[in-house]
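Protein in question reproduced for absentees:

***
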Amino acid sequence: MHVAVFEKLLAKVEPVIRRQNRSDGMSAERRLIVTLHIKRDFYVNDLMSGANSVDECINLSKSLANVLEKGCFKLRKWFSNSPEVMVALDEELQSSDIVNMGKQENAKSLGLSKENNNNNNNNNNGVGNQPLTIQSAQVRTGRMRWTKENNIQLMYAYYKTTNIETDMTLYRSRMHKLWTQLQPNIPRTEQNLASQVNSILRRKALSQAELEHIKKRVTDEAGAATGNIETRQSDDAAASDEKDENTTQELKQQQLIRNLASEEWDLKLSANILKYEGLSDETRPSIPKIKVNNEVMRSVKEINILLEQKCLACESLKDTYHLCYAAAVTVCEATGTILGKNTEISIRNNRTKDQIPSWQIRIENNINKTRQKIGKIYNYLDTRTVTSKKCKRDAEKLLLKEAKIPPRAPDRRALALVYLDRLKQKAATMGAKIRRYHESNKRKEHLRLFEKDQKKFYRKLNEETKISNNGLPAKEDMYRFWNSMWGQGVNHSDEYWLAKEEDRNQELEQMADIKIEKEDVQKAIATTQNWKTPGTDKLHNFWLKHFSALHGHLAAHFQRLIDHPEELPKEICMGKTIMIPKSENTQDPKEYRPITCLSNLYKLLTKILCNKITMHLDTNNIIAIEQNGCRRGSKGCQDLVIDNVVGRQVQDKQRHMSAAWIDYKKAYDSVPHSWLKKVLEIYKINPKITEFLNHAMTLWNTKLIVTGPKKTYETRTIKIFQGDSLSPIWFCLALNPLNKILSNSNLGYKVTKRNKVVLNHLMYMDDLKVYANNPEQLQSLLELVSRFSKSIHMEFGLSKCATVHYKKGKLISHENVTLMDGTEIETLKTSAYKYLGMLQTGQIKDKEMKTRMKNTYLKRVKTVCKTYLPGRQKIAAVNRWAIPVLAHTYGVLKWSKTELQEIDRATRRTLSQFRLHHQSSSEIRLYLPRIHGGRGLINVERACNRQNNKLATYFMQRDTYLHPAICELVRGYSSLNLEVPSVQEQLRGKALHGNYANESQAEGIDKSGSIQFLTNINLMGETEGFICAIQDQVVSTRALANPSNTSALDVRVFASVHYTERHDNIAKIIHLEMLKYLKIKNPEKKYYEYRPQELEENEHHKVYWNTQIQTDRSVVHNKPDIVWIDKNEKKAYLIDVAVPLYHNVVKTAKENISKYQDLAFDMRQTYHLKATRVIPLVISSNGLVHIDFEKNLKELKLPENIISQCIKAAILGTVNIVRRVMNMEP
């Protein structure tokens, strides 16, 4: 190891690096090595460095001397432990100012000196010139901690030697050689370096922006090394030709890089295709849900291009699925996703959830020690108890050592009390720190869960409804019960009604042949959820949706399966059924609800078939009017409306009526396959689709998985799969003949005698309610229902069936209804029956349901307010979780205007209680959408009116025998026009609350930018409510308005500090982003922790912060907030930030431009600039943004998203001023 030492240079090394001249003929690689040595090997003003050979050391010494001399750092003293280096440098660096320390006897540098050695060269006086023995620079061996600078240098070497990952052949040896040149003092093996590269990419130790910057640097240096970058010529024509040539060369190089990258993707994809070929779905690792970002989408795009060629070799649907799986695995590997794990959880939870951080353990120990001290001092001072000698001795020792209170101090007790109180404060502050940490964690956890999975977040809030696990059923019992229902092959029986149904549909037009196109696949996959739990294929919809190259081939394979059902793979008909307990009796197999996860390929195919079949059903009006469960475009609450209207009519008109509620036992799980096949034939479904579905039923299979300790039972299913789009419409078809049988019976309740409109049943999927004029008719209708149900082997759930009877509008008791087969349906014994979520007897119990729904709604609002979500997400949670409780009743229950207004008032009281809404703030603005400057809360009264209006329009537009008759009975429906603009006009008309709304619409204000704090920024709920109260001018700030008030003047002086802090915070955001964009530095601090330097510069740019600019003439306003000088283009930008009151935004922007015009003119003359621009950045104290703010940011080439940061800084600064200065509670 040859070492050259350069000593006693002038101070500061960093300016040397900044002043390097690219025209010195030094290569980019050599310049990088010299720069690294200067940065790494300086100690104050001494430099010790070295190389692996004499020639390298000589070249390095010359380069260092040359670069340092150009930076005005003249070489003073030097020596080396190599005579060859000393001779070469002595000849090269001839100067009277340079001292060769190798010729001095007692030379020292960094504490290292020469030793006697008579075998070395002698001087002229004959005295032995001792050779200088210098210790080599410390070489790191073994394990080491990689710093960020080391990682950057390693990634530079990696990208340099692999040509940005396009030439991976034997790259390790080349990378190791370059690393040895860059870091000679950190020897690493080839395997060490390769492993560290993988670790950096996997752990994302460097950000994507840093990696892109390193790649760009490598690309630029490669261009420079090959001669693509030439010096600018004076001749314009020659310069233009050279530019075109360089551009063409760059395009060719980029195309080459893309081709090489494509080849690398191809190799990875091909490797995964071979790796997972032949593996069953069970043995393949599951593909986890990943966080979608730009990197993932770029990888998906690259793979999708390759799939266009790869999928040509796929001969079957199974091959296409295998290709899609391999492509998904390739993307996961490229993004560092671990297969078989939820990466979002595994990455976040590197340490266990229950693990306590070390700092918290340390603070808790300090709290315990402090409490012990408090106990000792308290017992010592307590005169009511007798203190032991040991306790007294410990307390006196504690007072003497820590409190410095001697035993004979005259006021010893008073001083001890002060010390005791200080200990209590200390314990309280340490506890508050831990409490603040836990609250911060809860905020992050709640926000992360809300943004990731809102359903799961709401389930977590509703923990009281969670069913406790009281033990699982035995395996034999679970298998026996469900296999008896699914595993026994039963057939339907032919009854008289079957022949009539076939005759009725004899003239029905046969469904045409289908042709599955690529557009059908795209339409079906577009509406699916990306990360819905997959079935046994372990393939999420995300991959099927975004690998669009497969869509055409999937359509072709699906069409072939329809034409040749025998080719249907067995694997895609396999289900995974999760058994969810329905009650506390978890040991009973009957008390479980099966939820089946099916293959996404199977669901995609059945969804396409469902779209085709639904078109046939709608065209021919096959589904009965009374069936409202699967009809597209229908209102789900119409059954409740009709039922409630009929019940009210019975009581108001004092009429007779009998009704029955019918519930089927395990309805979905009871329909036999033979009947499913038959209904497809009856309703003329395309024969090819019928044949395909018949074959698919023979392959249906599922695995039962019981929640808790996982128990798996495999059984063949004879049910309809509950998990695809086709199942509901197929089930409704299976029950459709029942609707026809009841409708043709001429029995039922007469809704209107004049028009002879008869209602005998309503059905929502399998929930059936039967109506009749008297008990005899009711029994006849129930006989029809019973005979139909038995013929298709569906049983009544008698425990949930009931009858009710009215005579002259009054509820009467009646004997149970006994059918011909001995089935007995009991009369309703409880106070009410729950039908479609509503408690009712003959009609819905309005008062009881209103009270229940109102209490549930307000409870959910309060629960949401107690969470740690930001204000915007809390309002969204109220709208999406609490409001639907009431929305289910709109149009069904008869809400009065007073009741709805009371609910709105109770909501506002709850929000005010949790400081989300100021009690004096504008009510109108609270309900205004956020895109119009409001808070976005749904108004209960307006929502109810809108729903009533829509429901009335729906009933009046329905051309059936029943809906017009119901419209005649319904009163109170009217056409309401509740549009947002009318609400906005109402807000602007307010004398006080309307000021901000009017100013936000004024000329010169950016309307969309001014509401970003409501739409894009996650402010805490109380902060959002407080700033809205300030904007509504309901917070009293009149104390500052009276100049004669001395205290008010003191407050203004005190407030000026906070005004400056608010202003500077906004300017810091601009300054930080500017330094990053100009590549002067990349500070990683938050803007409120950042302390700007007065001057920051590099080779191309110079940025001043709050500095007086010197000119040849005296200028009054010569201190802008930020000045940016572009050295290359000879331009200067004078940036001034202002935070005025809301009504002075436009005025302040104009004043700032005119204020700095003189300075701009003088700077152009003094510093020979081509142009100067004054750029005002104006945001009002309450968040209004000047209309040119975004345009000015674009001119400064800054990202647009910092508008949100600036608004947030302005708003938080205003809230801080009002809370602190005006003596308000924090």
